[in-house]
Amino acid sequence: MTPRRTLADREDVLGGAMLAPALAYVTLLVGVPFVFAIVLSFSDATAGSLHFGWAGLRNYAAILGDPIFLRALRNSAVVTVGSQVLVVILATAAAQVFRATFRGKRFARFVILLPWAVPVSLAAIAWTWIFDSTFSVINWTLKAAGLLHGWLYWLGDPALALFAIIIVQAWRIFPFATVIVLAGLASIPQEIVEAAIVDGAGFWRRLLVVELPLLMPVVAVAVLFGVVYTATDLGVVYILTGGGPANTTHVLPTLAFQRGILGADLGQGAAIAVFLLPFLIVVAVAMLRLARRAEVGGGGSAR
């Protein structure tokens, strides 16, 4: 008599059944809104109206000829690249520190993970006070140390405001990157590091010649996550500057929100938001290729 097969015995059916809730979740919360945004970007839809007319490429032509959009696109690239450079530097330094044994290590880990746990809106409000034109703790500290003779209007000057946004985005992302880099350091074979020490390699040579090349796949993944989080973030820029002064610190998400929600032009807002897609695809493909090449090259050198 043939034994009766249960669901646990049918791996193909069981795998599909277990994946179905996750796929349904992603489809409903990501796929459907994304398709709807693409459709909206080709329409003349506005908030408060049921009219839905086909506009073709008119919305895209309008934003490509808009200097505010071009500046927001440039700001998105500057903030994303600038913050991720800081993230890689800070995460690598923090991971090196946490490899050592010292008193208060657990507490230090807890403190460094706080930026990742704090809600974005709450953190951005705190940073607004830090960069306040009158009560800025940075300005008062620099002035007390004799390093500042004038006054820095962090959120009132376009260049300083953009730099402030980069600082906050890096502060928000680097704890997550630190955990990833720390895990990557733990996965490096100890015999490779010991061989470098025997060969007389100092700290910097081990870091730059041995460890960082082996960490490139891990760092690429950390940067990829950081790019996605930063490029699609609305809260930090909206709370810190609101796109000001004079629309000079807008990034694509804040400009899309301003045009589509506050300005009620859903078609143009959707077109700006959809414009993020090719940018993120290019970055994702570049990071994954870099990780793949580093993994192959690192594997070859290790052998």
Explained architecture:
With 303 residues, the chain is mainly alpha-helical. It has a single domain (67-302), classed as MetI-like fold. Helices cover 74% and strands 0% of the residues. It has 13 helices and no strands. The protein has helices at 11-41, 58-64, 67-99, 105-117, 120-130, 137-144, 158-187, 190-198, 203-231, 235-240, 252-262, 266-274, 276-302. The protein is globular, with a radius of gyration of 24 Å. 28% of the residues are buried.
Topology of this structure?
Elements: H1 11-41, H2 58-64, H3 67-99, H4 105-117, H5 120-130, H6 137-144, H7 158-187, H8 190-198, H9 203-231, H10 235-240, H11 252-262, H12 266-274, H13 276-302
H/I helix tally: 13
Radius of gyration: 24 Å
Question: What is the name of the CATH topology?
Answer: MetI-like fold
Tell me the structural class. Answer: mainly alpha
Uncertain runs with pLDDT below 50, 5 residues or more? Answer: none
Helix content bin: over 70%
Shape: globular
CATH superfamily: MetI-like
The biggest beta sheet reads: none
Mean pLDDT level: 84
N-to-C span = 53 Å
Q: So, CATH architecture?
A: Orthogonal Bundle
